[in-house]
Write a structure and sequence with these properties.
Peroxidase, domain 1; single chain; Glutaredoxin; alpha+beta
Length: 177
Amino acid sequence: MSELATLARPYAAAVFKRAKETQSATKWSKSLAFMSDILKNKDISVVVDNPKVDKQRLSELLLDICQGHVNEESENFLKLLVHNNRLRLVPTIAKLFEAFKADDEGYLEVEVLTAYALSKEAKQEFTATLEKNLGKKIHMNVAVDKSLIGGVLVRAGDKVIDVSIKGRLQYMQKALK
């Protein structure tokens, strides 16, 4: 993942700079998310990964699929990625772009994994606690992961807070070795 992030960072930074210049960060967010979703499709992946597919034909295919969902600048960006053999970076570029956007707008994207679904009240209370501890407004994405057994796992930028039973058991296992 770190290699992908290293390769994707200059693209994400350039797209974010352009989005700031043109005040189109929301449009770019939607375009990158759409392109990322397309490239996660198994049928599209087969075509993208096939070295026998001509870059021009691949560009045309992807632009046909994206028609009406991305603007002209996004189309040009997609062509550039095809030309540079960097299509696999789109999901990472999208993620980095969102991080740049969040930082610029003064909030932090936080991914929270819980062993059980949070009630609305618990989610609000947890959000307030995280905002206080992290010192920023947050946008929290919550997902349930039963393998945690109990507790939560929080990823906020490059910070990871693991207060799950699974995490504690893994820590104990390492300590006992």
